[in-house]
Specification:
Elements (H helix, E strand, L loop, with lengths): L5 H8 L5 H33 L22 H7 L11 E4 L9 E8 L2 E7 L5 E8 L5 E8 L23
């Protein structure tokens, strides 16, 4: 019988990675991914609890339309954004004379061509307002207010006189 040196046998016997090693690597990757996602959710939840400012305000009127903010009423917003429910961010828009009943219900107040406001009753029981102004040239500002707990959270409450802070509410 021919002689084969030990190094050659070592190469012949080593078929590559064993099934167990790639399985362990896959499990480690899945664990790290789930930890990263979980940390992101925790950070987001902590961030939202810190201010209480309702996420629904992120779904306001958008850029000023050609006809002005006076056109951005509750029915217009509701018709324009039905896809948000598909993203798990269902927001309901109601007229300024109706009170917001929760964090996903915006009472809309289109004040005039250059000014729009919305108020939302947050999970902490406080009413938060956001007022957006914009000129024909697209220049504008966003203002905020936090009203005391128990305030009827109606869009009509929000005006240039009542929503004046440039600081994000705490």
């Amino acid at each position: 019988m021919e002689s084969v040196d030990r190094n050659t046998l070592a190469v012949i016997r080593r078929p590559g990675r064993r099934v167990g090693s790639w399985l362990i690597e896959a499990l480690v990757v899945l664990l790290l991914a789930s930890l990263a996602v979980g940390a992101g959710w925790q950070w987001d939840a902590a961030n939202n609890k810190k201010s209480g400012f309702p996420e629904a305000h992120d779904y306001g009127p958008g850029p000023r339309p050609v006809g002005g903010y006076g056109e951005v009423s509750a029915p217009v917003l509701q018709a324009r954004q039905p896809w948000r429910g598909d993203l798990g961010r269902a927001v309901r828009y109601i007229p300024a004379d109706e009170p917001s009943t929760g964090p996903n219900v915006i009472s809309v107040h289109p004040i005039d061509r250059s000014t729009w406001a919305g108020v939302v009753l947050a999970a902490n029981g406080r009413c938060y307002a956001m007022l957006v102004t914009s000129t024909q040239q697209g220049l504008g500002s966003t203002y905020y207010a936090r009203f005391p707990a128990g305030t009827p959270c109606k869009g009509a409450l929000a005006s240039k006189a009542t929503v004046r802070s440039t600081a994000f509410p705490s």
